[in-house]
Design goal:
The protein is α+β, with helices and mostly antiparallel strands. The chain is built from 17 helices and 21 strands. The strands form seven sheets. Strands 5-4-6-7-8 form a five-stranded mixed sheet, with helices on both faces. A four-stranded mixed sheet has the order 15-19-20-21. The protein has a three-stranded antiparallel sheet with strand order 1-2-3, with no helix packed on it. One of its GO terms (molecular function) is DNA binding.
């Protein structure tokens, strides 16, 4: 059998076909002595209702029959399964046109004008009288002078039909979306009503959980995703947990972190209709906005309470994006000694623990190696730190950053529920600012152009409204009165500490002290000198970066 290599010399092209070799001289088949013809076949991926489209196979059969009837030999078949509209890339069409325009092949056969292009006259004028293109259905030849007007007219008719069809489709889809109809396949965890195309939770059990041997509905999985992400579980950890438990996606595949993220960021789980912006952002759906600039629900009113709440969704997205940090560090028990958890060995940076009457380097106490293990008599170092703590509070003015930090920590200590609410509000403020920043970046990059232009103002207004509401909420929670710290100021701090029980004493020191670092004693039996061996890092307000001035170190 001949090789699959094409060779060209002196205007002759050799083409292997089965067991014999066919050559062409000037566009003529060397085996049969007939000129070459290429076939351009196209069928749209989507066939409109009421439109009869000839299949690719049927088009090829007709093309080959035409070639036999008119004395041509088929050289190449170009097959396309896509639209012929202006914004679609058609590499096969481009290659076929290049071949016939540069004389590589004498003729190009197309089943019909609307299979060739729907760009109108601009697509056919370049070939008229210059390259032979046969439009079989219309029985038109681009090299026939009498067919020129017919080809242009039919091409324009095909273009007008496509324009009208596109307009009708956009109008129909717009009307359906304004009614809250979900036009695509329902997202994971949801099911669409066959008549209304409204969504509702999919409660049909089909996802098997190996551990426990029970069935889960897709909606239960969605609720679990939002809940656990909101509680601080990472998307990667949750995907791993699902896979270990035997939970599979709707396609039966394993869960991945990006699959979890796609569900959390999707507004549809709150009951909102969405559209895909396309391009690089096609995986980040946005709210559909009607002509009045309003968002549209894709669920019935009685189903809305069953969807993911706006509060839970917002919290899950803040945690997922890192705008809200959830501390899930396990706590075995609360320390009661004054400096427990605050002290560090300067040599190895490990904690110092109370052992008898002294605080000692934890690594050294556990039998490990520390180049300069620190140790300090409990009574001496506590007396020194308390004195430094009281003096620092005495010197602090009302607007001192230290006092702001003390106020925040005292509020968290005495009003934990209220403090959690403030943290939630601050996280929402951070997320709202990030949303507005993203809009500004998209706007600067001309994202809101073309079909996306209608979303520009609604998205801008929504981002600004969210930021305004978040700022107002933070102001409301933090500006409703001063925190009374008089018991720690004006020289009262040391007396307050001495009157407190052991647990409160530790908490009081923790209001102003971040950490205490201790160096090794210069010699055994030496008197403890705190100014030489101890450095204290003072507390800073939440979100602030510590300065060098906030460190009080030994001279």
């Amino acid at each position: 059998m001949a090789t699959a290599t094409l060779t060209r010399s002196a205007g002759t092209l050799s083409v292997p076909t089965g067991g014999m070799e066919m050559t062409t001289q000037g566009g003529v088949c060397g085996c049969h002595g007939r000129p070459w013809v290429d076939l351009l076949l196209r069928k749209s991926k989507i066939v409109r209702e009421g439109e009869r489209a000839l299949s690719i196979r049927a088009q090829e059969d007709r093309g080959r029959a035409w070639a036999d009837e008119h004395g041509y030999c088929v050289r190449k078949v170009w097959k396309e399964n896509l639209s012929a509209w202006s914004d679609v890339q058609r590499p096969k069409y481009d290659a076929a046109m290049a071949a016939v325009m540069n004389g590589e092949v004498p003729c190009l056969w197309v089943y019909a004008l609307d299979r060739f292009s729907r760009k109108g006259a601009e697509a056919v004028v370049p070939i008229l009288g210059k390259a032979r293109v046969i439009f079989d259905y219309e029985r038109l030849d681009s090299m026939d002078e009498r067919d020129r007007r017919w080809i242009i007219d039919r091409a324009e008719n095909a273009r007008e039909y496509s324009q009208r069809l596109s307009y009708n489709v956009r109008t129909t889809k717009g009307k359906q979306r304004n009614e809250g109809r979900w036009l695509a396949k329902a997202p994971f965890g949801l099911v669409a009503d066959k008549e209304t195309r409204r969504l509702s939770p999919d409660l049909s059990p089909y996802l098997c959980v190996v551990k426990g041997r029970r069935e889960l509905s897709p909606w239960e999985v969605v609720v679990r995703i939002f809940t656990e992400i909101a509680e601080g579980v990472s998307s990667r950890a949750l995907a791993r947990k699902f896979n270990e438990e035997g939970i599979r996606s709707s396609t039966g595949k394993f869960w991945r972190a990006d699959s979890i993220r796609a569900i959390v960021i999707h507004p549809v789980y709150e009951g909102w209709l969405t559209v895909s912006p396309g391009g690089k952002s096609h995986k980040s759906p946005v709210h559909y906005v009607n002509d009045k600039g309003e968002r549209v629900r894709c669920v019935e009113p009685d189903v809305l309470p069953d969807m993911i709440s706006a509060t839970l969704a917002a919290r899950a997205r803040r945690v997922l994006s890192g705008n809200q940090i959830i501390d899930n560090t396990p706590v075995e028990g609360k320390a009661v000694h004054a400096l427990s958890g605050k002290m560090r060995c300067a040599s190895c940076t490990n904690a110092m623990v109370l052992d008898g009457k002294s605080y000692n380097c934890q690594r050294r106490a556990a039998g490990g190696a520390c180049p300069g293990p620190a140790s300090a008599w409990r009574e001496a170092i506590e007396r020194y730190v308390v004195q430094q703590w009281a003096d620092r509070l005495y010197r602090a003015a009302d607007d001192d950053p230290l006092m702001i930090a003390v106020a925040e920590r005292w509020q968290a200590l005495t009003r934990p529920d209220e403090n959690a609410e403030i943290k939630e509000a601050r996280a929402e403020l951070k997320a709202a600012q990030a949303k507005l920043d993203k809009f500004m970046a998209d706007d600067a990059a001309d994202f809101y152009t073309g079909r996306s232009a209608k979303y520009r103002i609604p998205h801008k207004n929504a981002a600004e409204k969210r930021l305004d509401a978040a700022e107002e909420r933070v102001k409301e929670l933090t500006g409703g009165g001063r925190v009374d710290l008089s018991f720690l100021m004006e020289g009262h701090a040391e007396a307050t500490w001495r009157a407190a029980d052991p647990m409160l004493r530790r908490d009081l020191l923790g209001l102003a002290i971040e950490s205490v670092t201790v160096t090794k004693s210069p010699g055994q039996g030496k008197r403890f000198k705190g100014d030489e061996r101890v450095s204290i890092v003072w507390a800073t307000p939440e979100g602030a970066e510590p300065d060098a001035d906030e460190f009080e170190q030994a001279a």
